[in-house]
Design a protein that fits this description.
685 residues, alpha/beta, 7-stranded mixed beta sheet, 3-stranded antiparallel beta sheet
Length: 685
């Protein structure tokens, strides 16, 4: 019997290859045999076998959309140089160092090369007060290893692979590719579900120049990868409902695999699963689709979700316990419960299928989406106003982080600017709100069930952002919780509403074009200042120190209480693999004494050390430089000298508005500099 080959286009082949490489890499990490070269070699072999036996690559059979090509070129111009963010203390620096540790330790775990060289007294000093621990680093339960980063594996895995192919300093570069492809996926999804090229191009354009999407395309966290995976997953899920029967299985396979990878990227899967359940319960009422194929899709999706939870339970247990239960046993029980819930939904749907009352409820959710949406939005706006009152005008949350760090408590009406709802309005733009409301009130969703699914997804994440997160107190950093779902899918819905306006006549048509023009100008005001900017500390700051780092050298770092240890320790220990010991005072050097197998000792400090001691001699001064985008809000009180590339938001510094513009979309580019002093410590007797 001749094996049948399935025709796939070049983009589908790329997506399947991306999945294969990702899965191979994560398997090798879990069995502690990872290396970038081995991952790529095994993946290429698998892909080659698939080409020989299962798939036949055919060219894309679509006309070139020159508008789309122009949009993607424009988008690329904003996203050419993702930052190698080495500075520790926050997620982005941790992910970069994780990617390097995957190569060093060949696994998800970390072996501290220095610990084995210390005697018992030195180990006690080394672990004292966790001075040598950095952000997100957890003690390992594995007897062979010492530590583990409690973060998601897929993003650092791809940085590791990119670093192998393009060099250490370019490991974040893969973000440029997935960022552009996320815009392409949004175009395909928007055009497909609305049957309108105008909506597709408008959605792609508005996402391409969206300041938040641009920022995180150059900032090495997980949100852009997540958007690439989920937007592709939703597009191929939609495609399975409209393609020829012989293409349904392939589209569903690509969709489930992309969603499966998203479960290894961010915790968002927990919020998405109820949306998938709603999609399943409603799609199964459609007689025009292959129900058996879609049943397999949703069961496969559920199985991959459960598999991801089991992966975390066995490989990164601290990650799971930080979100669910406090122990592995309780987490296992919870995962089993999830399995029974999924089984209950599956069996319940089979029981209810064809029931007139059940069908009537499903239909009403689609027909009366306007009432449903208006009700949810009204509740969320009221809840947001209650938050403004509680935080802005009472001391109920006095002493919380919102008070001590973010200064929101008893701040009056200025608390509005920190609301999650207000943040979304800023980044989708007030013009986008007009388009979204027009889409809902004009019932643009009728006859377009996938627009309803996108709207339900949007409302679920909006509810989570407003009720659970409550505030977006620092931009751009915390806006990332809106970048992978709320902003892009909100843009699709708003774009369709605007397309309805410009397809009308008279004043509404003029208003539609005016909304587009103002939205584009609004976005570019905040996007152009980002061109050519880098974020985090200059890698030259670390390279200067890394030049002395080797297996026979220890660097004592005298901690600066006004500056988190993680900023320096994370890159020096986990990217450059230095043996660093944090000390509280210079006497600790004497307490440590000579360390086994160590020939050279250095002292790194932000303080000048008196040269009265012959043991310590000055080597050179290092200029530690860091950069970030900022609002007009005051800079953290670190021992760093800052300078500002100041741009004011139009109209904001004037009169009353000046009080409410602090803390919104950044226009300032801040440069910080701190002097570090390196000393040689003479050998111990």
């Amino acid at each position: 019997m001749i094996n049948k080959k399935y025709p796939i286009n070049l983009y589908e082949f790329f997506l399947l290859s991306f999945v294969v490489i990702s899965v191979v890499g994560m398997i090798l990490l879990s069995v502690r045999q990872y290396s970038p070269g081995t991952t790529l070699l095994i993946s290429l072999c698998i892909i080659f076998v698939l080409i020989l036996t299962k798939v036949k690559i055919s060219p894309l059979k679509i006309k070139v959309d020159f508008i789309l090509v122009s949009i993607l070129i424009l988008a690329t111009g904003f996203r050419l140089s993702p930052s190698l963010y080495l500075e520790g203390g926050q997620d982005q620096g941790v992910y970069v160092s994780m990617s390097k540790q995957y190569e060093v330790n060949k696994s998800l775990y970390i072996k501290d090369s220095l610990l084995d060289k210390l005697n018992s007294n030195q180990k006690e000093l080394y672990k004292r007060n966790d001075l040598n621990k950095v952000t997100a680093l957890k003690s390992s339960d594995n007897s062979e290893f010492d530590y583990q980063f409690s973060f998601y594996p897929l993003h650092p895995l791809w940085m590791s692979l990119t670093g192998f192919l393009a060099g250490d300093g370019n490991r974040a570069q893969y973000l440029t590719l997935v960022s552009i492809l996320s815009i392409l996926n949004i175009y395909l999804l928007a055009r497909g579900v609305t049957k309108s090229r105008v909506v597709g191009n408008l959605s792609a354009l508005l996402l391409a120049i969206n300041p938040a999407h641009i920022f995180f395309s150059n900032f090495p966290v997980t949100e852009i990868l997540m958007l690439f995976l989920t937007s592709g997953g939703f597009y191929y899920l939609y495609k399975a409902t409209v393609v020829r029967p012989n293409r349904v299985s392939l589209s569903l396979l690509i969709s489930v695999l992309l969603f499966g990878l998203s479960f290894f990227t961010r915790i968002t899967s927990v919020i998405m699963m109820p949306v998938f359940a709603f999609m399943y319960l409603s799609l199964m009422q459609n007689r025009d689709i292959n129900r058996v194929a879609f049943q397999k899709f949703f069961l496969g999706l559920s199985a991959l979700w459960i598999t991801s939870l089991l992966f975390y339970l066995t490989n990164i247990p601290t990650l799971l316990t930080s979100f669910f239960m406090s122990t592995s046993i309780l987490n296992l029980v919870l995962i089993i419960c999830f399995g029974f819930v999924i089984l209950g939904i599956y069996l319940g749907e089979r029981t209810l299928r064809g029931n007139p009352k059940y069908i009537s409820i499903i239909k009403s959710l689609f027909i009366r989406q306007d009432l449903f949406t208006v009700f949810i939005l009204t509740c969320l706006v009221i809840y947001s106003m209650i938050l403004v009152y509680l935080f802005g005008f009472t001391n109920v949350f006095s002493g919380s982080i919102y008070d001590t760090f973010w200064k929101i408590v008893e701040s009056g009406f200025s608390a509005i600017k920190d609301l999650s709802l207000f943040s979304l309005v800023l980044y989708v733009s007030p013009l986008g709100v007009i388009g979204y409301l027009y889409f809902i009130l004009n019932k643009g969703y009728l006859g377009k069930p996938f627009l309803v699914y996108i709207n339900v997804l949007f409302l679920v994440f909006l509810s989570h952002s407003i009720i659970i997160l409550k505030f977006i107190p620092h931009h751009y950093y915390f806006v990332r919780y809106q970048v992978s779902e709320l902003i892009p899918y909100g843009i699709i819905l708003a774009s369709f509403g605007i397309s309805q306006m410009i397809s009308s006549f008279g004043l509404r048509r003029i208003l539609g074009y005016l909304v587009i023009a103002l939205w584009v100008v609004y976005s570019l005001i905040f996007s152009f200042p980002q061109i050519g900017k880098t974020y985090g500390a200059d890698d030259t700051s670390f390279k200067t120190i890394s030049n002395i780092i080797d297996s026979k050298t220890v660097v004592f770092y005298l901690q600066d209480p006004s500056w988190p240890n993680s900023f320096l320790l994370t890159p020096l220990k986990y990217f450059y693999n230095g043996q660093i010991v944090v000390i509280e005072n210079l006497r600790d050097i004497e307490e440590f004494g000579k360390i086994s197998s160590i020939d050279k000792y250095y002292l790194l400090t932000s303080y000048k050390v008196a040269s009265s001691s012959n043991r310590i001699s000055y080597v050179y001064t290092i200029k530690y430089r860091t950069h970030f985008m900022s609002t007009q809000r005051s800079i953290p009180n670190f021992s760093v000298k800052y300078s500002y590339d100041y741009r004011s938001i139009p109209l904001c510094p004037v009169g009353l508005l000046g009080n409410y513009c602090e803390g919104i979309i950044p226009l300032q580019y801040v440069k910080g500099e701190k002097l570090l002093f390196l000393y040689r410590v003479s050998d111990f007797n």
